[in-house]
TrEMBL record:
InterPro entries: NAD(P)-bd_dom_sf, PRISE-like_Rossmann-fold. It comes from the Bacteria. This is Nucleoside-diphosphate-sugar epimerase. Residues 57-354 form the PRISE-like Rossmann-fold domain.
Amino acid sequence: MAKTALIVGVSGVIGSALAQKLVQDGWQVYGLSRGRSTIPAGCTSLTADLTNASSVKEALAETIPDAVFFSVWARQATEKENIRVNGAMVSNVISALGERLRGKHVALVTGLKHYLGPFEAYGKGEVPVTPFREEQGRQPVENFYYAQEDAVFDGAKTFGYRWSVHRPHTIIGFALGNAMNMGQTLAVYATLCKEKGWPFIFPGSKAQWNGISDMTDASLLAEQLEWAAQSPAAANEDFNAVNGDVFRWSWMWPRIASYFDIEAAPYPAQMMPLEGRMQEAAAAWQELAQRHHLAEHDISRLASWWHTDADLGRPMEVFTDMSKSRKAGFTGYRCTLDSFVQLFDTLKQHNIIPR
């Protein structure tokens, strides 16, 4: 019989890729979301306010999953509020399913802010030595990732399921309206630079420009999530989840520029974040989208200047070690440049950026 999956956050960049992978592999997939975005084909949509325990309980009344996958968050004004809201979204689902989870698998996707601290605390804790390894543990700062983990761990003790935690770096994938999507943001930025004659300036720090980095293809993460849900070696373990190659942005930036037939600007004398430079971008994109008959005229559904600035503006080198995952049996790999190219091609195919 086909296995049943519940994906919490199915319309996001990670949830969409996972849903497509599981449907392709014969799973019956239920997607729980707020119902504001289209979910992938082949999924059954379940709608709830994830912050409301009664709403979640009602939506999941008939659902009996073999595996639950959490890839969900809602940005709040402070980390204290992030902890309250995002921790509750996980615990509400686990409580609603209750005994139906006994003997099943629960997977949680967090990220490298596990090691770095949350956005408002970057560099305030003692950043671990790179590459980041799972054994390095938590930072001594408030972090909603830890609250979500604790909700999963507490549920495992109460309801007797196995779990896994997955920590990707910056995701490369296709999803509209996603708040954490560097690949689409860079595609929009490069397109505007080409159309308006703006210089294609790297917006981040010198440490990121020169240091080693890595990224995570959403399809690679989907493979790891499916593997962990079925492999005995992945039970009750945390795993980094990156493509497996490393690069420097000083190498990657001109290659992204080349895809869009533009020149990469030299590294500037000082950091030039996108959020401060993209004040005219919304109007420029609307004009561009009308002229090229693009599918999405609202730039806020495509680009997340603040998140890309946060990722590329880090004052330290950031990359991870995949040894734990490899030794446990997961051998997935992606070339990050290929991941960018495939995303850009997909954006063209969906008429999101000009062909």
